From TrEMBL:
Record's protein name: PapC/FimD family outer membrane usher protein
Taxonomic superkingdom: Bacteria
Pfam families associated with the record: PapC_C, PapC_N, Usher
Membrane topology field: Multi-pass membrane protein
Family statement: Belongs to the fimbrial export usher family.
Domain PapC-like C-terminal, residue spans: 754-810
One annotated GO biological process: pilus assembly
Record's signal peptide: 1-27
Keyword check for Lipid biosynthesis: no
Residue span, PapC N-terminal domain: 33-174
Subcellular location: Cell outer membrane
Length: 827
């Protein structure tokens, strides 16, 4: 700031530095006395340099500071400095009880904390604990011996943020319209939507999941709230409680919808090395298609994908059991298959117990309960580093009961294995009691030295009279008569990377196989193989080839699909390629061009012909905007059809600080962060993922719960008239939380001013000028000169010295660049 002051007002910086250096050898407890003769100031009696008199001296006042704990950013908060009770020429930082709680101190350390009053605690009484204030950062250092946790990659629960109260609505809307050219058979239009709406109050989240569809050709529509529930995290217990309509998330028993209460361990609250995995869904779309993933009739993911192989990786980690996948092609054909999200062996760290317990009654989509009340609970207990035992019970009076027990074993270099037995006892009205058992064996192994892994391998056999709870309910209330009762199922998924150290030869192969048969119907099989290879030809680097083959067999019929593609870079993030698609006896060959230069605008076009020589083509475009993500596609097949489809995903979030329309995945209840820039509009956030609206409010969506997250202002993309004192904050949010971050920003003019008090004097040299957000916009020089930056016409400013606001400055309503210097009264 000094560089903008004319030479006759300059501070003799060299003399001041010499003064500071001359006293740098003094002990920390010794006060420094400045000789004002070293300053080139006319009025040496009107100087406030008290903050430089003591080591790390901060004038008594309240400041907005960045807070770091042992070098890691914690949050930005207001911190009050008071005169130290031990010495009048010293100050200390008052930490509030919440700030001290966030330190995650051991009980012995907490007993050493000095209480100044109900809102002021001093932690420097803990041996070797220090607090320093440098460049707007409050740096708290605590020896690790006084803290509960020591994992550097994990934020302890004491620092998790439940966010602020608010309302939200997330949506995903897909639509498709097609016209059949062949035989003039007409056109069809359909829409579908799903998402959630809800409210946050403290740590509680109220949610309502909805889905709906509309068929234009049949003039049929449907919309329903298929799940209404409330939940809250219990961080200190690493658990979560849910009330309302729930889908059971058991690792022992099958998934059942019920109305009641559930209390379960939440692995996401554990350190990363103790967490589980999320399932993946792989397949091939023969054209631009809509993919819907559902479970028990409930849509949990829906998107539009381009032609070729697809891999859905962002499902919720809590998804368990069997998933139904539907692929709707643009020519109207539909293919379906199932994915079993089998769990890796159920291992638990030594001495720790994971649990999941529920009480309720089975319920239907119309929100009515149907079936006897039941209790279910399962657990896993880590006996040692190698052994875990697990099991559970499901009790429902004399109607349906089941128990399960199993053991997991870490085989070290051989991987991990688990085995369990489940027995059910069920009785339908008018029949005798039936007993049956089910046996399961699971295995997983990562071969680091071979760059490969068996993600999951499992085998399950069920006796004919064995019933799951959902099968019992279907038999009793839906008259299914046990059709399709499971007999055997075995699954294996794995991958292998060849030549991992050579980018020009690296090849990755993914394999999946599932076989399932039944006691009274034919079985089904699904095979999948995909491979990708990167290589160079004639000096052209980055050529990639991908191959995917899938076969589904059901009731003696094979459904085969193959996709092969090769792409070659032809410029900056642009590719030319060749695609081969085969579906049964039908094949299509296409030439393609892709442009990924703009991350927020990706597109691809293809053109080619099928085996009969009929022309076909399609296009795919993805636009990521601050308010929504839009995926669109168009397809054409000669003498067959032309179609247009797309998906729009977004959300709306409102709190007492404001509201904003924003992007959103709409697939799971992730956290989000509302950003307040003090009315400054158009501020880009996190790589332009979001942008503040006209009111200075923006929302960064899809923040992973229980993980440290940085909210950033894209400083390089700010306008020249915008100033920000701090461009990044870090927070850790609980599930479904609406975080709130306010950035101290100013947008406006730069003004050379001379400040005058009512008695004709000027504020002391060294005083600060703050705006209403406590952002420093100037420091007062000799004679009351202050170079104000980022101020708005008509804005109120405050001059601060001796630790408090002394007077108010009113910026004129009209500012002109022609004014070299303006006189501003400070009243």
């Amino acid at each position: 700031m000094l560089f903008f002051i004319k030479s006759r007002y300059k501070l003799s910086i060299a003399n001041l530095i010499l003064c500071l250096i001359a006293h740098s050898s003094l002990a920390a407890d010794d006060a420094v006395e400045f000789s004002v003769d070293a300053l080139d100031a006319a009025d040496r009696g009107n100087i406030d340099l008290s903050r430089f008199a003591e080591t790390n001296y901060v004038a008594p006042a309240t400041y907005l500071l960045d807070i770091k704990i042992n070098g890691r950013f914690y949050k930005q908060d207001k911190v009050t400095y008071i005169v130290s009770p031990d010495a009048k020429n010293k100050t200390l930082a008052c930490l509030t009880p919440n700030m001290v709680t966030a330190l995650a101190l051991k009980e012995k350390a907490l007993e050493m904390v000095r209480r100044i009053d109900d809102r002021c605690l001093d932690i420097t009484t803990i041996p070797s604990a220090t607090i320093s204030n440098q460049e707007g950062t409050l740096d708290i250092t605590i020896p690790q011996a006084w803290m509960k946790y020591s994992d550097p990659d994990w934020t302890p629960p004491e620092r998790w943020d439940n966010g602020v109260p608010g309302l939200l609505l997330d949506y995903s809307i897909s639509g498709q319209t097609s016209r059949q050219i062949k035989n003039g058979s007409g056109s069809s239009t359909s829409f579908s939507a799903y998402g959630q709406t809800g409210m946050n109050v403290g740590a509680w989240r109220l949610r309502a999941q909805y889905q709906g569809d509309y068929s234009g050709s049949e003039h049929q529509h449907n919309f329903e709230f298929n799940q209404i529930y409330a939940y809250r995290p219990l961080p200190m217990q690493a658990a979560k409680v849910i009330l309302g309509e729930i889908y059971s998330n058991s690792k022992v028993f099958d998934t059942v919808r019920f109305t009641g209460i559930n209390l379960a361990s939440d692995e996401r609250m554990l350190p990363p090395n103790l967490q589980g995995y999320a399932p993946q869904v792989r397949g091939i779309a023969k054209s631009n298609a809509k993919v819907t993933v559902s479970q028990s009739g409930r849509t949990i993911y829906e998107t539009t994908v381009p032609a070729g192989p697809f891999n859905i990786e962002d499902l919720n980690t809590s998804v368990r059991g069997e998933l139904d996948v539907k692929v709707e092609e643009q020519d109207g054909t539909i293919s379906t298959f199932k994915v079993n999200t089998a769990n890796i062996p159920y291992l638990t760290r030594p001495g720790y117990i994971r649990y999941n317990t529920s009480v309720g009654r089975p319920s239907q989509y119309n929100h009515k309960v149907q079936g006897p009340a039941f209790y279910t609970g399962d657990f896993s207990w880590g006996l040692s580093n190698s052994w875990s035992i697990y099991g559970g019970v499901l009790l429902s009076g004399s109607n349906y009961n089941a128990w399960s027990t199993g053991v997991g074993r870490d085989l070290d270099i051989l991987g991990a294995i688990s085995a369990d037995i489940t027995q059910s006892i069920s009785k339908l009205p008018g029949e005798s009691s039936q007993q049956g058992m089910s046996f399961k064996l699971s295995y997983a192994k990562t071969f680091d030295e071979f760059n490969s892994s068996i993600t999951f391998a499992g085998y399950r056999f069920s006796q004919k009279k064995y019933r799951t709870q959902s099968q019992y309910l279907d038999d009793r209330y839906n008259d299914y008569n046990s059709t399709g009762r499971d007999k055997e199922m075995y699954t294996i998924t794995g991958n292998k990377t060849f030549w991992a150290d050579d980018p020009d030869k690296m090849t990755t192969v993914f394999l999946t196989y599932t076989h399932q048969n039944y006691w009274d119907t034919k079985g089904q099989d699904r095979y999948g193989l995909s491979a990708s290879r990167t290589f160079s030809v004639a000096g052209v680097n980055g050529i990639t080839a991908n191959l995917a083959l899938y076969r589904s067999t059901y009731q003696g019929r094979n459904d085969d699909s193959l996709s092969f593609s090769i792409s070659m870079p032809i410029g900056d993030s642009r590719w030319a390629g060749y695609d081969l698609q085969m579906q049964g006896r039908r094949n299509t060959q296409m030439a393609s061009y892709s442009d990924n230069r703009d991350y927020n605008n990706l597109w691809r076009i293809r053109a080619g012909a099928d085996q009969a020589g009929k022309a076909s083509g399609d296009g795919y475009y993805q636009h990521r905007a601050a308010m929504a993500q839009i995926d669109t596609n168009v397809s054409y097949q000669q003498d067959n059809y032309v179609s247009l489809g797309g998906t729009v995903r977004g959300g709306i979030t409102a709190t007492r600080y404001g509201a904003a329309i924003h992007n959103s995945s709409a697939t799971q209840d992730t956290a989000r962060i509302m950003v307040d820039t003090g009315g400054v509009a158009g501020v880009p956030l996190n790589g332009k993922l979001a942008r503040t609206n006209f009111f200075g409010i923006g929302v960064v969506p899809d923040v992973a719960s229980y993980n440290s997250f940085d909210t950033r202002i894209d400083v390089d993309a700010l306008g020249e008239d915008v100033e920000v004192s701090h461009a990044i904050t870090t927070s850790t949010l609980t599930e479904g939380a609406i975080g709130y971050e306010k950035f101290a920003m100013s947008q406006g003019e730069r003004v050379m001013s001379q400040l005058r008090l009512q008695d004709g004097t000027s504020p002391p040299f060294g005083a600060e000028v703050l705006n209403d957000d406590s952002v420093s916009v100037a420091m007062v020089m000799d004679g009351g000169i202050a170079y104000l930056s980022g101020v708005k016409p008509g804005e109120k400013l405050f001059a601060v010295w001796e630790g408090k606001k002394q007077c108010t400055i009113q910026v004129p309503e009209k500012l002109t660049h022609k004014q070299a210097q303006i006189l501003l009264p400070c009243q």
